[in-house]
Amino acid sequence: IGHLYFDRGYVRVRELERDYSYRESVTADRELLIDTAGNEFEVPAGYTMQGYSDGILLLEREGKYGYYSTDGRWIAQPVYTYAKPFLDGLGVIGFADGRCGVVDTAGRIVVPFDYTYISAPSSGVIACFDDNGWTVLVKTAAPAQ
User: Partners of 90 in the beta sheet?
Assistant: First the structure.
């Protein structure tokens, strides 16, 4: 899968089961998270992991996507029809009507659902498109409290 590093104590792996009695056919194919001790992270029942980064799982069930934290809580409920894995601490999600937004790892909406396209973050830069054209947003540090 390309993940050869531990992210917040977990590594993403792909598990294949094969039936060698009939042309070595694959009988099961799934992705999972394993911690440094070899223990498997329990993905909520009925969901398929589509991505993992920044301690956040991108899960899918019946065409609906959501973000789930390794802390065992939903960051974004699985009601979205479009989602990208987290990058730079941000996840791009959207609805079937074309509205997209961005959430952070705490589940806060950091870019409103006002855009029809939002790129994945790259070095803290996000490109957004709406009826008025392109907007470029730059990720900055939160103000000190």
Answer: 87, 104
- With the CA atoms of 27, 40, 13 and 6 taken in that order, what torsion angle do they form, in degrees rounded to the nearest 10? 180
pTM given for the model: 0.84
Side chain identity at residue 115, one-letter code: Y
Assigned token pair, 13: 């792996």
How many Cα atoms sit within 13 Å of 30 on the Cβ side? 15
Q: What is the DSSP letter of 56?
A: E
* Position with higher pLDDT, 58 vs 19: 58
In sequence order, the β-bridge partners of residue 76 are 67
Q: Please say whether the beta carbons of 12 and 24 come within 8 A.
A: no
- d(C-alpha 63, C-alpha 23), whole Å: 32
What the block records as the tokens of 111 is: 């870019």
